[in-house]
Amino acid sequence: MTARTATVVRDGFQYLEGARWHADRLWFSDIPLGTVHTMNADGELAVAATVDAKPSGLGFTPEGVPLVVTQADNKLRKITADGGTEIVADLAGIATGANDMWVDSHGRAYITQIGYDLFNGADAQPSTMVVVEADGTVHTAGEGLICPNGVGLAPDGNTLYVAETFTFRLTAFDVAADGGLSNQRIFKQFDSLESDALDGLCMDAVGAIWVTCPFSSEVRRITPDGTVTDIVSTATPGHFVVSCALGGPDGRTLYLCTADTDLERMSNNFEGTARIESVTVDVPRMS
């Protein structure tokens, strides 16, 4: 087991999500402040978009168009060159708390949803994935998921992984040539909510998963056979880590979105402070 500790790159945010590396920059959303940021490898920031609807998961079409999921109104939007957004698909009535997203090489968006009114104390309810095809068609996939959160596609495109937060497990699906999901199964079951709740994830070049564990302030690397090989701790013990992405010039910088918060404070419009942290790892990002 390899253990590392991340260091702080930038602070001054409120609650960050949706970390993705694209076009030599880290992209991420500040949900309560309604901004999508980008940051280069030197830590220089820019605002890519402003959207007053709680932006969360991010992805990119094959043409490089940025997409963002908005939690407040359950919509998939594209980010325009002037920093605005245009609606691609309306998920209202299908999704509750649209959350994270993975966009495949065909422009198909796999979107997770909280599935119930978590921050107002509702009981957990099973839910589905929401899939938006490249032509804007919307349908659901999977079943019985409890707060599906981070999502990522293996490098060969044949397996989709989903982190279920409050059942502390990684679920896998086979992916057909047309993007259809089948053979839903538990890939990795952890032990307890207190230490093993899961949030965002990313994939490396050999198909291992980096998955964030907010309550234990760490990110774990899990190989395709289910072995945990690496653990990265946040710079400050006790801070949540909720999203991660591999990037940097050689693809070996693991970026973390961390937050000084808790579930009660999150219920108050994501009250808290947030940072970007990073650490160098051995295996680069998937291409």
UniProtKB/TrEMBL annotation:
Domain SMP-30/Gluconolactonase/LRE-like region: 17-259
SUPFAM superfamilies reported in the protein's UniProt record: Calcium-dependent phosphotriesterase
Pfam families referenced in this protein's UniProt entry, alphabetically: SGL
InterPro entries: 6-blade_b-propeller_TolB-like, SGL, SMP-30/CGR1_Lactonase
PANTHER family tied to this protein: BLR2277 PROTEIN, LIPOPROTEIN-RELATED
Name used for this protein in its record: SMP-30/gluconolactonase/LRE family protein
Provenance organism: Nocardia speluncae
Upper classification of the organism: Bacteria, Bacillati, Actinomycetota, Actinomycetes, Mycobacteriales
